[in-house]
Amino acid sequence: MELHRPVPAPTQARPPREGESVTSRPSDPSSSLPDPDPSTTDDATVATVIVAAGRGLRAGGGLAKQWRDLGGRTVLARSIAAFAGLGPLCLVLRAEEIGRHPEIEAMADLVVPGGAERAHSVRAGLEALEKHAPLRVLIHDAARPLVPRETIRAVIAALDHGAAAAPGLTVTDALWRVSDNRVAEAPSREGLVRAQTPQGFRFDAILAAHRAHDGPPAADDVAVARAAGLAVTVVPGHEDNLKITGAQDFARAERILGCDMDVRTGNGFDVHAFGPGDAVWLCGVEIPHHAGLAGHSDADVGMHALTDAIYGAMAHGDIGQHFPPSDPQWKGARSEIFLAHAADLARVEGFAVTHCDVTLICERPKIGPHAEAMRAELARIMQIEPGRVSVKATTSERLGFAGREEGIAAMATATLVKS
Ligand SMILES: Nc1ccn([C@@H]2O[C@H](COP(=O)(O)OP(=O)(O)OP(=O)(O)O)[C@@H](O)[C@H]2O)c(=O)n1
Ligand SMILES: C[C@](O)(CO)[C@H](O)COP(=O)(O)O
After folding, report:
1. Domains of the chain and any CATH numbers
2. Distance in Å, CA 310 to ligand 1 centroid
3. Which residues of 239-263 are buried (b: 16+ CB within 10 A; e: fewer)?
4. d(CA 414, CA 310)
5. What is the largest CA-CA distance in the chain?
6. Going by C-beta distance under 8 Å and a sequence separation of 6 or more, which residues neighbour residue 256?
7. pLDDT tens, position by position, 2-41
8. Cα 72 from chain centroid?
9. Which InterPro entries does the protein's record reference (predicted)?
């Protein structure tokens, strides 16, 4: 057994105060425990055992599932990290694997060898924690790397009122018993829940229960607790808290983590020269000006840059390819048609435009007073929220064609996400 980092000072369950009654239900040995003292029920008094001594045979793939990568971190590192900030954490590994992954072991306070069955591994972890005398303990499968913090908190909170608590998920599908690939029976799902971990206990009660347990090894610690007469409270589990069991569960976990997201960025740039006229169209807003912008369409330079950014993110060419200037039907066209086309194409390909940012480069007209209207108009055309659209402007310090007020330039970026 190795000790890697200092653990909090042992926390003892306090004896009842003078005159304080301790209610006791004969069928529930847990109720003979004193109520937890609020002053000691902070997270530091909750120890954790993470059992990672399995072989992961059902998941296949050679390497045991707890050592495999899941979105850039091992499954085991994710499971340990989920319990950060609580009390001492004991990691249970197969004896021959101890010392092979120092960076993972360093995340734990104690590392101990497990046994042939999960129950043996849990027992080894509990025995190792005894000297730290935690008030409560959480026992968690390394194979459940995506356990949400809210699930952990719900289990800990339930231990304020009882000796044992565990997360469960209501069974929502009908159940079948199958024989020879045929439905032989449809058992009732009434009152059934799917058991998850972490399963939480008053430490002394579960250690005693494991020591007393005989017969075939139990599937989980709730079974051990119940065999010892402990009442177990069920708190809401979470669909994300899947147990990686078969090979297909890695893909499911990656989907939950969002690892399969396709994130694209595109940029666009456009310039239009000033010409005759008394207004310019910029980002869908008409602004009175002493000149117009020259172009085949309405010459909305900002909207063109943004449209090209969206096409660029999808690697679908540019406006010129989709709406050739040589085609007379686009003469004088509203640029709204181009932007709506690019946004529709993105939707058809499964992308959401999650953000875009347009910068107009000109001395005049002043853009600030119109920026909000431009954001609203671009958002309307793309059918996204205005909060995802940014419009800003800069001068070029009177340098170059924009500085000499010969024309207006615009640049844009667009971020597209497919999940
Ligand atoms: N002797 C064992 C068996 C299992 N476990 C742990 O208990 C958890 C739940 O077990 P399971 O999903 O069944 O894991 P494996 O036993 O590794 O999988 P398999 O049955 O497919 O070999 C896992 O984190 C596993 O590492 C353990 O610590 N010691
Ligand atoms: C403890 C457990 O995660 C509860 O659902 C589960 O029983 C352990 O996995 P196994 O496949 O039963 O070994």
Report:
1. 2-257 (3.90.550.10), 262-418 (3.30.1330.50)
2. 47
3. eebbbbeeeebbeebeebbeeeeee
4. 6
5. 95
6. 146, 240, 242
7. 334 443 333 333 233 222 222 222 333 333 334 444 434 5
8. 13
9. IspD, IspD/F, IspD/TarI, ISPD_synthase_CS, MECDP_synthase, MECDP_synthase_CS, MECDP_synthase_sf, Nucleotide-diphossugar_trans
The residue to which tokens 């020269």 are assigned: 273
- Other CB atoms within a 10 A radius of the CB of residue 206 amount to 28
CB 73 within 8 Å of CB 140 = no
End-to-end CA distance of the chain: 44
Phi-psi region of 385 (alpha: psi -120 to 50; beta: other; left: phi over 0): beta
The answer to whether 330 and 297 are in contact (CB under 8 A) is yes
Ligand located closest to 242 CA? 2
**Which atom number of ligand 2 is nearest to the Cα of residue 141?**
3
Task: Give the long-range contacts of residues 244-249, CB within 8 A, separation 24 or more.
Answer: 244/59, 244/65, 244/70, 244/75, 244/143, 244/144, 244/145, 245/58, 245/59, 245/143, 246/58, 246/59, 247/59, 247/60, 247/61, 249/59
CB 303 within 8 A of CB 320: no
Residues 6+ apart with CB under 8 A from 61: 68, 247
Cβ-contact 319, 311 below 8 angstroms: yes
Please count the residues of the chain. Answer: 419
Q: Please, which pLDDT band fits residue 79 given cuts at 50, 70 and 90? A: very high
Q: What pTM was computed for the model?
A: 0.70
CB of 313 shorter than 6 A to ligand 2: no
- Residue 407: how many CB atoms within 10 A of its CB? 20
Q: Are strands 199-202 and 193-195 parallel, antiparallel or unpaired?
A: unpaired
Distance in Å, CA 257 to ligand 1 centroid: 22
pLDDT of 214-262, one tens digit each? 989 999 999 999 999 999 999 999 999 999 999 999 999 999 998 878 9
Please return the burial class of 16, using the count of CB atoms within 10 Å of its CB with bins 0-12, 13-18 and 19+. exposed
Using CA atoms, how far apart are residues 205 and 32, in angstroms rounded to an integer? 10
Nearest to 301 by CA among 358, 343, 366, 385: 358
ipTM of the prediction: 0.97
At 360, give phi and psi (nearest 5°): -95, 135
- Ligand nearest the Cα of residue 199 is 2
Query: CB-based contacts of 86: which residues, under 8 Å, 6+ apart?
Result: 43, 44, 46, 47, 48, 138, 152
